Amino acid sequence: MGIEEDVLKWKGIVIYIIGIGAILAFIYGMIEGYYFRRSIAENPRYTIGVTTRFIWLKSGRKIEYSYNVKEQEYKWLGIYKEDIIYPNGRYIVKFSSESPENSKILFNYTVPDTIIEAPSFGWEEWPLDKHVKP
Fold first, then answer.
1. Which of 23, 35, 116, 122 has its CA 20 to 30 A from that of 128?
2. How would you class 95 by CB atoms within 10 Å of its CB: exposed for 0-12, middle for 13-18, buried for 19 or more?
């Protein structure tokens, strides 16, 4: 075997390994996303999230928000929409009671000023008008 054949052989092996790695990363991401969404859906709680800043990422425009559960602050990113108030916009956050770091901010539901704060472990039931439910 010549050097060129060895190089081609190793290039093929490297490409194969990279391909397998990419497939495994994709599968892991899908499984992780599934458990993330399932955790929130099966163990929902609601609290108040406050927008903190606007961020440009390669994946798009995001809004960082923070919320508190049992005196622990969590920060997460939501997908940017044109009419979002930031900083200091107050929106409902749906989170998992089993894994409070798993959350989704509901930008369609602003928290009125009449609601000062959420209970320490959030609301078990939808906190806004019962007719305005996601």
1. 35
2. buried
Which DSSP state fits 123? B
Beta-carbon contacts of 52 under 8 Å, excluding residues fewer than 6 positions away, are 64, 65, 66, 75, 86, 87
Which numeric CATH code is attached to 44-110? Answer: 2.40.50
CB atoms near residue 109 (< 10 Å): 20
Asked if 52 and 66 count as a contact pair (C-beta separation under 8 A), the reply is: yes
d(CA 105, CA 48): 9
Q: For the chain, report the end-to-end CA distance as a whole number of angstroms.
A: 66
Q: Please state the length of the chain.
A: 134
The full set of domain ranges for the chain reads 1-42, 44-110
Backbone phi and psi for residue 47, each to the nearest 5 degrees, phi listed first = -150, -175
- In the three-class reduction of DSSP (H, G, I as helix; E, B as strand; rest coil), residue 13 is classed as helix
